[in-house]
Amino acid sequence: MSYPPFIVSSRHVGDDANWWRRAVVYQIYPRSFQDTDGDGYGDIPGITSRLDHLDALGVDVVWLSPVYRSPQDDNGYDISDYEDIDPMFGSLADLDALIAGLHERGMRLVMDLVVNHTSDEHPWFSASRSAKDSPKRDWYIWRPARAFPGLKPGEPGTEPTNWGSFFSGPAWQWDEGTQEFYLHLFSVKQPDLNWENPQVRHAVYDMMGRWLDRGVDGFRMDVINLISKTYPLADGPRPDGALYGDGAALVANGPRVHEFLHEMNQAVFAPRSRHIITVGETPGVNTTEASRYTDPARGEVDMVFQFEHVGLTDGPGGKFDPQPLDRVALKRNLAGWQAALAPEVDAAGRVTGERGWNSNYWDNHDQPRAVSRFGDSDPAWREMSAKTIASILHLHRGTPYVYQGEELGQTNTVFAGIDSYRDLESINYFSERTGVGDDPAALLAGLAVNSRDNARTPVQWDATAHAGFTTGTPWIDVAPNFREINAAAQVGVPGSVFEHYRALIALRHHDDAVALGTFRLLDADAADSWTLLREYVGADGEREQVLLAASCTRAGLETGPGSALRGRLAAEGLDLGEWNDSERVLMASLPVEEAAASGTGMPARLAGWDSVILRRRL
Fold it and tell me: What is the rounded end-to-end Cα distance, in angstroms, of the chain?
């Protein structure tokens, strides 16, 4: 079909071959974005009604979490029909209108693609479980029960392996009808597809092609590094105190995953004339594997989501056993990823080729709110820290991702008890751990910090009832601070978090050093500050440098002559005195329009959680 034409806009990146390297992606979690029919769930017409907000922000790509038909066991990540829209979100006509609205404003649409597993209500699985001789039996991963003395097939302990599901409980479910187990790495209602079967792969590729022909501009591929398992399936190590074995090493980054992704690229993306933006969610990936996934010469995906930095606060008991953030470890981790995927440069420092690409994010639908985790959500420091952590992220090399509400500085919410939660992972974890005697109060404390529901509270549009999200009863409670934190109070308001994000996005669009330049972390061992240097050398040899200095505590940061920071930077070859005439591009403590007029060079001091971006040309 003829998809809606893309119209280039001055507020967004254009359509040159490398447009996506300058782009900023905005993630929408549809059920929490905007409701238009009063049922308490966000919908596609609601997204379309808010496109002017995204246009004003300047983002280039909208990533839409799943809106396909689904029983909603895992909020849409359990798909029962890949080629239709769930009625709770609208219709295919509504999606067509959304694509048209984005394209006419110069923005693009990325669909969430979940093909490691389907819903158990997908027709493919219904056919697969109907009989052992079904033509689609091998489309999923079935295994007979293990013989164990005293146990009947299907009883606990007879599972084919000892793996635990990522959503608690065993990773295998007994099917009475065919007397075998099927694998589900996530919910029991999310059976894993068998990617070893070429019929499965090509059915997926054909489906993807039809979405692209409809006008979709790319895919974010959910847990895509799990599609290749290591065969034969075997038990994983079982840590002390764990209820199940850990099968992660046997299901992640498997022996054929790169073959499958290259095959997908050649079948789906390469034949099309426009660039299809692709990002793979790859839990457990390391820098070596990531460079393989994202090396342009290999033809797999543009970038991957990695989870190392968001796992730095995990305690011995995992994400729901949170520990204090080690900011030095965070800085070094992100810098390590920058180094691993750094470009090739010549002797003059010019970028001559790309070896990979980073996706940079603080939060998303699976992570707690950025300002609560990496900044300071105390009302006295929230706005300043939200702007500063935004500057830090957007000054890293790679594609920045903004999660809905992040541009407003939305925070984690307040949960009254387990009944306030809607997230399957959180509910299952609480049930499993209380079932073995863990303290409910301690469990709730961990959930409050890291539950995915923190990110899933509705976008706070204004100070009216339910934050302007719905006229009905929202499916999940709105965060109680919506009267202070909302879009109506920030859009067009000098000094707001929104306006700071708008300026950062525009900077990436127009500044070569920020979008394409090399990256260097300075003063890596300082816990109270964050200093980054970006540099771009043009074809004519002109050198542009952009420097970020950020205070990461309430105490502030001395930066003037004689300061400890200056001494440490000088030891690394950077003399702040040479920046005295540099332009102040952006400061967290000032409205965007006032930064340049505030003076030149580094301020003598940065207040608590303040930051400054400087620019000079040599």
Answer: 51
Q: How far apart are CA 254 and CA 329, in angstroms?
A: 28
Polymer length in residues for the chain: 618
| DSSP structural state of residue 159 | S
**What ranges make up the beta strands (E) of 347-387?**
351-353, 359-360
Q: Is 259 tagged catalytic?
A: no
Instruction: Identify the CA nearest to 196 among candidates 255, 273, 248, 110.
Output: 255
Could you give the C-alpha distances from 466 to 475, 488, 593, in angstroms and in order? 11, 14, 33
Residues sharing a CB contact under 8 Å with residue 268, sequence separation 6 or more, in sequence order = 205, 208, 209, 212, 276
User: Cα separation of 385 and 39, whole Å?
Assistant: 35
Residue 1 has what pLDDT? 52
φ and ψ at 525, to 5 degrees?
-90, 0
| pLDDT one-digit tens code per residue, 162-188 | 999 999 999 999 999 999 999 999 999
Q: State both tokens at 374.
A: 């990496």
Distance between CA atoms of 507 and 57, rounded to whole angstroms? Answer: 12
| Rounded Cα–Cα distance for residues 60 and 56 (Å) | 11
Residue from 222, 289, 511, 610 carrying the catalytic annotation: 222
Angstrom distance (rounded) from CA 268 to CA 260: 12
Taking a C-beta distance cutoff of 8 angstroms, is the pair 486, 460 a contact?
Answer: yes
Amino acid at 525: D
From the list 302, 255, 313, the residue with the least C-alpha distance to 108 is 302
Which residue out of 112, 281, 302, 423 is catalytically annotated?
281
Strands 399-403 and 583-587 turn out to be unpaired
Model pLDDT for residues 328-359, shown as the tens digit of each residue: 999 999 999 999 999 999 999 999 999 999 99
263: three-class secondary structure by DSSP: helix
State how far the Cα of 452 lies from the Cα of 29, in Å rounded to an integer.
12
Establish whether 37 is a catalytic residue: no
Q: Break the chain down into helix, strand, coil percent, rounded to 5.
A: 30, 15, 50
527-579 residue pLDDT tens: 999 999 999 999 999 999 999 999 999 999 999 999 999 999 999 999 999 99
What does DSSP say about strands 61-64 and 108-113: parallel, antiparallel, or unpaired? parallel
d(CA 109, CA 97): 12
pLDDT tens per residue, range 87-119: 999 999 999 999 999 999 999 999 999 999 999
Find out whether the peptide bond into 494 is cis, omega within 30 degrees of 0: no
DSSP secondary structure, 440-460, as one string: HHHHHHHHHHH-THHHHSPP-
